[in-house]
Specification:
globular, mainly alpha, 0% strand, single chain
Length: 538
């Protein structure tokens, strides 16, 4: 794939030519632009999630629900800690680097790079030390599981590397290419975890092999990611660009212009924290109100639902910059078209997957082992119910941010977390895993609905169209019909999988025939051509 095919369009000036297109051709042109760079992102995200699923299935098969629950909890604490350690420099560093890249401001680019490396490294070491010291309190007092102390202490060593990996990945994207981030962050990181885990198991390190493999993979991947990002910087600027300014250059390891970068980046930290915490309240609350075995069973079911994240994240990466460009050009009609397109695509991609997951609940949970069949299938079915609502909301969160209503999105994230905490407190003591699943599903549906209403209130845009109606009805009918067949005839696991795949294919066929408009069909052809090109066909 050519370098220019992977451009991330984050500058409104890059889209200025679109302002002159007529109304009839505007959406097709915008959607064609949206198709650029999608294939590599989507394939990389899919591969990363499949490798993570494979690794976690191994852990479940080898050590069971309790130890899988310990691993998931330790990983969650590590994710939260790395978000704090990064100080918002994932997005802040990418923004400043992209702006300096457009202006060819060489000296500033080097300062941005040093800021984005130095502070996450320094603060990551500090936060890792805090996590190490607080491990007994978190494990024994909060989660009431002494075995978790060793897991949390081990994960604390990964915090600075994990933060640098995420920051380096976004810095690389600032140079208008995603291939390095996909290769290292999505592919190599997962492959190294699998390889280290298998090797450490063979050497007899037991359950902690999964934690050690994460640490080693994060360390190697972060170093390579920073080397590649720095190489991109050197290719663009040269080794010492400031020498062009009549020799007035004194190299310093510490960045000189770090204050404005941190001033912009640090306030972005709550967004990441609320996003992760809001989506993980159920795991945290189960740890506090239940035990590690139940956490493991619940987390295994939630693992399948996380596959929807690759759809929403990939489409947000596409539509976010495009909507930002149209907002900057005051093109309200094109902004509306892009938002509705994001809603259609997310809904069309999530609906068949949701139908298949609902109808194949037991075979999918059997993948993790028989110990996950007690409540796992019911938890999976409940959690999946919320995914179509997220699809209809589309890129509403990104739309708030680019339209200068970022505090509305912050309120949505905070409200989602608080609602989840309240519902989990009410329902987990009474209903256990099922209570946590219902609380999470209700919170997700309420938040998605609130985003839709708030987008309409602030921007007078809504995602609904006649194209969504027939696929939605078809998905509902096929889902209910499949559940009736399972209840009446009790098919075997292979038959359930066949029923799920058949229903998903039928929903997809109805989407193609009745849901897509002419612009979507044009885009589908473009993506097909790009896929054939990527795999070597012509």
């Amino acid at each position: 794939m050519a370098e220019r095919d992977e451009i991330i369009i984050d500058n409104p000036a890059n889209l200025s030519s679109l302002g002159n297109t007529d109304a009839k051709g505007g959406e097709t042109l915008l959607l064609t632009t949206a198709a650029k760079g999608t294939l590599l992102n989507f394939m990389g995200s899919t591969a990363a999630r499949l490798m993570a699923l494979f690794l976690q299935v191994l852990v479940c098969r080898l050590y069971g629900r309790e130890y899988y629950g310990l691993f998931v909890t330790g990983l969650l604490i590590c994710q939260i800690t790395q978000i704090i350690s990064a100080l918002g420099l994932q997005k802040g560093g990418m923004r400043f680097m992209a702006m300096a890249h457009e202006r060819h401001d060489y000296n500033v680019m080097h300062d941005i790079f040093k800021t984005a490396v130095f502070f996450p490294l320094l603060f990551g070491i500090f936060m890792g030390s805090v996590c190490y010291g607080l491990s007994p309190f978190l494990a024994v007092t909060c989660f009431k599981d002494a075995e978790m102390v060793y897991v949390l202490r081990s994960f604390s060593f990964a915090v600075p590397f994990f933060a640098l990996l995420r920051v380096g990945s976004d810095l690389s994207r600032a140079f208008k290419t995603t291939k390095y981030a996909v290769m290292v962050d999505n592919l190599l990181f997962g492959l190294l975890q699998v390889a280290f885990f298998i090797a450490l198991i063979a050497l007899g390190y037991g359950f902690l092999s999964i934690v050690y493999s994460f640490i080693f993979a994060a360390a190697l991947s972060s170093i390579l990611m920073l080397i590649l990002a720095h190489r991109q910087l050197r290719v663009f600027t040269g080794p010492l660009p400031a020498l062009r300014n009549k020799g007035r250059y004194s190299y310093s390891f510490f960045p000189k212009n770090w204050r404005p970068i941190l001033a912009y980046s640090v306030p972005l930290t709550p967004f990441g924290l609320l996003l992760v915490a809001g989506s993980s309240v159920d795991i945290i609350m189960l740890n506090i109100l239940s035990d590690s075995a139940k956490v493991g069973e619940y987390a295994a079911a939630a693992r399948w639902v996380m596959l929807f994240g690759m759809i929403t994240c990939s489409l947000d990466l596409i539509f976010g910059p495009l909507m930002a460009g149209q907002f900057g050009l005051n093109q309200a009609n094109k902004l509306k078209l892009l938002y509705r397109a994001s809603s259609r695509w997310m809904f069309f991609l999530t609906l068949p997957a949701a139908v298949s997951l609902v109808l194949a609940r037991e075979p999918l949970m059997m993948v993790f082992g028989k110990g996950f069949l007690l409540h796992g299938p019911a938890v999976l079915g409940i959690l999946v119910l919320a995914s179509p609502f997220v699809g209809v909301a589309g890129s509403a969160g990104i739309l708030f941010v680019i339209s200068r209503h970022q505090y509305v999105e912050l309120s949505c994230l905070a409200g989602n977390m608080l609602l989840n905490i309240l519902l989990n407190l009410l329902w987990i003591p009474q209903y256990g895993l099922l209570g946590a699943a219902v609380a999470t599903a209700v919170g997700t549906i309420v938040t998605a609905s609130a985003r839709i209403l708030l987008v309409y209130r602030h921007l007078k845009i809504h995602p609904f169209s006649a194209h969504l109606l027939i696929p939605a009805l078809a998905g509902l009918i096929l889902c209910l019909g499949g559940l009736f067949v399972e209840w009446k005839f009790h098919p075997c696991a292979v038959a359930e999988l066949g029923l799920a795949i058949g229903a998903a294919c039928l929903v997809l066929l109805i989407i193609i025939k009745k849901g897509m408009d002419v612009h979507d069909r044009c885009l589908l052809g473009i993506l097909g051509q790009r896929f054939c090109k990527a795999v070597g066909f012509r």
